[in-house]
């Protein structure tokens, strides 16, 4: 621990100073020696650090999206050079260089907050051993040793003995119950965060070993937190639990508003966006315009969910523009599954089937109309243009058609005997 403390001594003083400043604020509300004052100081330290790490988190998202975009190319390289690991690594590095991505960029937030984590651990360990660290003087040290969170001192651990826990003014049962609950919550929040990422925010159309690694880490990380958590002081558990909760909420926000293309989260988001845009007939926020602009710019490279979104707008008479806006249009072209635009032809309207009573009434009405029409024709006097009826005897008789003569019997017999009709062609003399 002395080696780790010496490595992170440059940040121990700033961390202790931030904690003391927050403690001075919360101490006026809850009392300087209470666990609420010191516990909320640690929570505020976490929030301040995570706010400062938001730019790195945005960079992490972009790096993760870039890595997911490269998954098909990575899979081709792995299949092409599956028997040559060295060539496979060289091609992977070449692909990363050409695309401008870095696999380590996804680990930036964790690496950036590691120094704060070890500095806080060193500060709390000093409180447990009774030594002043950074700007924490003797009076603040005594106040921190009196602070308890649900009966557990800030500097107590799950593995501490009864004598050490008694020196901090607590019982072993309280310490182990509180630390066990916090360790379970810390591991559960880590598992849920990773599971949410794998089940909702991953492109389901691409299956690569990278996804299998992420799935394995979903189970490995919670176990690691549980194993190392029994050696963490209560104050560090507060810090790490707050970090996990912040990460979970931050990821839920990103998945809900900016999901990964091709994922289940994108399908749900575009469904919500379709209802919103068709209701207002425009994109209202900057984020919506950015999403629509990205979908339009893809062209034929759109995935299934994005084509469905464009077709849904087309069916209601709306057209997505390259700048991300949506306007009314006359286009009836929709995209097929392969991205090819096709013209949507309207379906032929089938006539509505009538009931038996309606058909009978329509037939009776037609018969009445026909009878009235015949009566009107009978009452109407005939004019000179009307053709008079002539007796059949007056009509000239038509000449009866003569029956066609039947072929002669000899010809019929010859035809039946297999010979050709008409004059026979003489046989050519054989050549000797």
Protein architecture, described:
The chain is mainly alpha-helical and 432 residues long. The chain is built from 17 helices and six strands. It has helices at residues 2-7, 9-30, 35-52, 54-69, 71-80, 85-99, 108-129, 138-146, 162-167, 172-200, 209-229, 234-257, 264-280, 286-298, 304-315, 356-379, 409-416, and strands spanning 148-149, 152-153, 318-320, 326-328, 333-335, 341-343. The protein has a two-stranded antiparallel sheet. Strands 3-4 form a two-stranded antiparallel sheet. β1 and β2 (152-153) form a beta hairpin. The longest helix has 29 residues, at 172-200. The radius of gyration is 44 Å and the shape is elongated. The N and C termini lie far apart (121 Å). The model is unreliable at 382-402 and 407-418 (pLDDT under 50).
Q: Cα-atom Rg, whole angstroms?
A: 44 Å
* Structure summary, number of beta strands: 6
The average pLDDT is: 76
Amino-to-carboxy terminus distance: 121 Å
What about the largest sheet? 2 strands, antiparallel
Which regions are unreliable across 5 or more consecutive residues at pLDDT < 50? Answer: 382-402, 407-418
Structural class: mainly alpha
Kindly report the spatial arrangement of strands forming the biggest sheet: 1-2
Strand content: under 5%
Mass-distribution shape: elongated
The helix count comes to 17
Helical content, roughly? Answer: 55-70%
Please write the string of helix (H) and strand (E) elements.
Answer: HHHHHHHHEEHHHHHHHEEEEHH
